[in-house]
Design goal:
25% strand, alpha/beta, 339 residues, 9 helices, seven-stranded mixed sheet, 25% helix
């Protein structure tokens, strides 16, 4: 075994952001690296994920997952190479997926490390299309929203890691029409020309409700919500009788400092008998084997396309995260430590 590194860098949260996160809320710190304890592996991270949900973990509020601790390394999905093992079943050189991102080296309990196969797909794909975001799309569409062939589907944040997969999966399973919203004309073009959406619009170009009605004049059966706010209100207006919505994320209000008003047309839920259901991907891990099997075959055949926005270097982790919140990514936002 080669000598272990003496130290590595990791991102710490040092202050709770108020509104938009600021650079001074974070610190990149050098910390010692030790060999793995009993039942643990030491991993050199190659890629880590930045995701919208992490903004909520920066607040000191009770939620479905504990907040990040101040002056401790933040967490998140990461994939890397085992460089030392003190656990049965893991060898130096294995590639693993785990939850201790935002750092160069991670000492991971083996029970929380999952081996991944670099020959099936690029390692970064296990953080996106074959990872948590892909499973979110798969479970949110097929399980939570009860998608069925012939449904018309509207996806907000459709050029993001989750939304882009939702739209394509709906098309692959026989949607009658798939509509997406995104925040730039370039992303709208990508949705239609590369991902095969039937229609898409730039939500900055006019009222969302009006643009959705033009894109889906006959209404929608399913709404996959990554945005909240005016998108949810527009979807409630356009949903047909017995329509279903998966409430996955509300990135439009993550940095608000005041309570966000709810949709003004919520009473329509009654007459239309709509079903609005929140989802957390952790509730759907039983779908993982089926998801990987089906999605890996779609990727191999070229039927399912995906994009990644890769930011090189751990020192750019904060910039990548804030860029994600501003919508600067196309597809999954990844911080790569491979250089």
């Amino acid at each position: 075994m080669s000598a272990l590194p003496a130290s590595g860098r990791e991102w710490h949260l040092v202050a709770r952001p108020h509104g938009w996160p600021k650079a001074e809320d974070f610190a990149l710190r050098e910390t010692p690296v030790a060999g793995p304890g009993e039942g643990r592996v030491l991993v050199r991270n190659l890629h880590f994920s930045v995701d919208p949900y992490m903004r909520g973990r920066m607040n000191d509020v009770k939620s479905y997952t504990p907040p990040f601790k101040l002056d401790h390394p933040m967490e998140g999905g990461a994939v890397g190479e085992v460089i030392a093992s003190n656990a049965d079943g893991f060898a130096v050189g294995d590639h693993v997926l785990h939850g201790l991102g935002w750092r160069e080296y991670a000492e991971v309990p083996a029970k929380y490390a999952t081996k991944v196969d670099a020959s099936l797909a690029p390692l970064s794909a296990y953080l996106g299309v074959l990872g948590m975001t892909g499973l979110t799309a798969y479970a949110g569409l097929f399980d939570v929203a009860s998608f069925k062939e012939g449904d018309a589907v509207f996806v907000s944040g459709a050029a993001g890691a989750v939304g882009s997969q939702v739209g394509q999966m709906a098309k692959l399973k026989g949607a009658s029409r798939v509509i997406g919203s995104a925040g730039s004309d370039e992303k709208v073009k990508l949705l239609v020309e590369e991902y095969g959406f039937d229609a898409a619009f730039n939500y900055k170009n006019g009222p969302v409700g009006q643009q959705l009605k033009e894109a889906a004049p006959d209404g929608i059966d399913v709404y996959f919500d990554n945005v909240g706010g005016d998108h949810l209100e527009a979807a409630i207006s356009s949903l047909k009788l017995h329509g279903r919505a998966t409430i996955c994320g509300m990135i439009a209000q993550y940095n608000n400092t005041e309570p966000t008003p709810g949709p003004r047309n919520l009473a329509l839920v009654i007459g239309k008998r709509l079903r609005l259901r929140g989802m957390l991907v952790g509730d759907h891990t039983a779908l993982q084997p089926e998801f990987v099997r089906e999605v890996a075959s779609w990727i191999a055949s070229g039927e399912l396309k995906y994009n990644e926005t890769v930011v090189e270097g751990i020192e750019n982790g904060y910039d990548a995260f804030v860029g994600l919140l501003r919508g600067e990514n196309t597809g999954k936002m990844i911080v790569s430590l491979t250089q």
